[in-house]
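Q: Okay, next protein. This is 15-hydroxyprostaglandin dehydrogenase from Sporothrix curviconia. I've checked the sequence twice, so it should be correct. Can you predict the 3D structure?
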Amino acid sequence: MADSKVGIVTGAASGMGMALAKHFAAQGWRLALWDVNTKVGEELARELGPNTFFVQCDVSSYDSQARAYLATWQKFGRIDALLANAGIVERSSIFIFKYRSNKVEDVPPAPNLACTDVDWKGVLYGVQLAIHFMRHNPGKPGGKIVVTASNAAIHPHASYPEYNGAKAAVVQLVRGVAEVLKIKENILINCVCPGIVHTSIMPPEMVAAVSAESLTPLDTITRAYAGCLADDDTRSGVILECSGTQISDIEHERLTFKNGVPSVRSVTVWDPLFKQIHGEPSELPSAIL
Ligand SMILES: NC(=O)c1ccc[n+]([C@@H]2O[C@H](COP(=O)([O-])OP(=O)(O)OC[C@H]3O[C@@H](n4cnc5c(N)ncnc54)[C@H](O)[C@@H]3O)[C@@H](O)[C@H]2O)c1
């Protein structure tokens, strides 16, 4: 087991994270199970045996993630994969319907942006820290990252406006960093976008209201992750719609530019600017020097 792969599963104490933990533990991976739910996380680590351990981690805090990365590194001495899966939905309503009768000077309170902190900032923190730790992997530096976004990242719906935005941000992060991480860090990063999965994030009444064929089994999510994390899988920047039993690469459905070259140029890397922000050139073949 000493040379088996090491993975971090965030949000491991429930739903998809728990399913991912069980799947990869059964495949012989050594796993760090991160969650805010210590009781269930520790129970799961006991159930899965000595190659797994639980780390209490709030992914919305950089310091908490840094401590959890260090604990994982100290335990296993390498980190091959980050399964950045933890997520919540919004905690307050941007529509502020209940404040409709407020007087104009009676300004509603600021929104609770915990969803942005967990689903968006948590992924940014996790990716940056993964880059740092994966650089130190003995043998060959590098690794793999898979992030759980949502179909709502691509097709936003009115129930969760903040969540739509946080998950869309995650999709664009994956698309935006994939090429540089592959070339410069030997890190592959991909994104899984589930449909409706029967987990504790979903109200049971909503699950009951959905027809069976519109539910996505946990197995579809673990298959999507397993595909990305397979040794022979070299994809990066891929966005996978996971719906029902179907896993579809939706990258080819990227919007086309309506105004051709001038629009393409606006998002082509100009290396002096890249260097100004990041301290060295991008090394992208498409970059303008
Ligand atoms: N269930 C669905 O239908 C569905 C659909 C699309 C996307 N997703 C996404 O899938 C991922 C997994 O969700 P799930 O459905 O398994 O939900 P879940 O509620 O069953 O599990 C989420 C886990 O994340 C943990 N968590 C929450 N905040 C955390 C934090 N700050 N730090 C660390 N852990 C934290 C929770 O304790 C829980 O164990 C989420 O990113 C979610 O947004 C879910």
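A: Here is a summary of the prediction. The radius of gyration is 20 Å. The mean pLDDT is 95.
Q: Noted. On to the next one.
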